[in-house]
Amino acid sequence: MHGPLGLLEEGRDLVACFRTADSARRARSAVEACGYHVALTTDIPEGDPLEAFRASSRPFPVGRRLWIDPGDPGEDRTPPSRIALRVPASRAFGTGGHESTRLALLALEEEVRPDSRLLDAGTGSGILALAAVALGAARAVGFDTDADAVFVARENVRRHPFGARVGLFAGPAAAAAGRFTIVVANMLPEELFPILSVLAARVEPGGRLIVSGIPADREQSLTARARFRRLRLFSRYREGSWSCLCLCRGSS
Fold first, then answer.
1. Which terminus of the chain, N or C, has fewer Cβ atoms within 10 Å?
2. DSSP β-ladder status, 83-86 and 66-69
């Protein structure tokens, strides 16, 4: 909504870069209104912080099978036992550095099957949709209300031979048609709760809704809302103060 130029992850922090100080201040006010702490810095030297981040980034493993590379394209040093996901740091969220992304990747590693069809809500960089097909899903569809994010995701999809099994579109959750074996959403509760009913309706009987980006102290609120939508807690992943919940829809 506030049009950041780019997003990058520094440890447990998410850093957003804006073109002007006024834009940054408006974004800070909106985020603080949701109860999150924000530190604002406006005295930044000229340069591209994302370029510096990419240059200093190193690939890292996630789970048993994935190898995440958030740096600039270069020599491929992927271990033979792992699958590379190349998602250079950009203005779209999702390079695998944040706990919420890593937790969602771990959940997908457990849940994806060869016949899985996946919907990635708020796809950002496209990393979760790419991970799903890399892990063997038959098809993944990602969407985002931010058209710039979808542009970045398309660039990332083209970097992967299995990217042909990923479809992308810019639009709201209501525009996603059909039902899916797995629906995954890596977003904060303030973004998730308004569309939870729509996402739950996209999960086929016996399927999974994987939600990450949930502060651990908000788990109970989410599971209570999920029960009203015939979803029960199936498994939980946690790192630091972040949670990823895997919810199961009844088979009938």
1. C
2. parallel
Please state, in angstroms and rounded to a whole number, the distance separating the CA atoms of residues 66 and 115: 19
Query: Facing residues of 17 across strands?
Result: 6
Say how far apart CA 86 and CA 133 lie, in whole Å: 14
pLDDT digits (tens, 9 = 90+) for 208-229: 999 999 999 999 999 999 988 8
| Calculated CA dihedral for residues 45, 51, 55, 60, nearest 10 degrees | 120
Cβ(138)–Cβ(166) under 8 Å? Answer: no
Measured distance CA(98)–CA(62) in Å, rounded: 12
Please tell me the total number of residues recorded for the chain in this structure: 252
Instruction: Say whether pTM exceeds 0.70.
Output: yes
Residues 135 and 113: their CA atoms lie apart, in Å, by: 8
Under 8 Å between Cβ of 138 and 165: yes
- Residue by residue, what is the 3-state secondary structure of the chain? CCCCCEEEEECCEEEEECCCHHHHHHHHHHHHHCCCCCCCCCCCCCCCHHHHHHHHCCCEEECCCEEEECCCCCCCCCCCCCEEEECCCCCCCCCCCCHHHHHHHHHHHHHCCCCCEEEEECCCCCHHHHHHHHCCCCEEEEEECCHHHHHHHHHHHHCCHHHHHEEEEECCHHHCCCCEEEEEEECCHHHHHHHHHHHHHCEEEEEEEEEEEEEHHHHHHHHHHHHCCCEEEEEEEEECCEEEEEEEECCC
Taking only the tens place, the pLDDT of each residue in 161-195 is 999 999 999 999 999 999 999 999 999 999 999 99
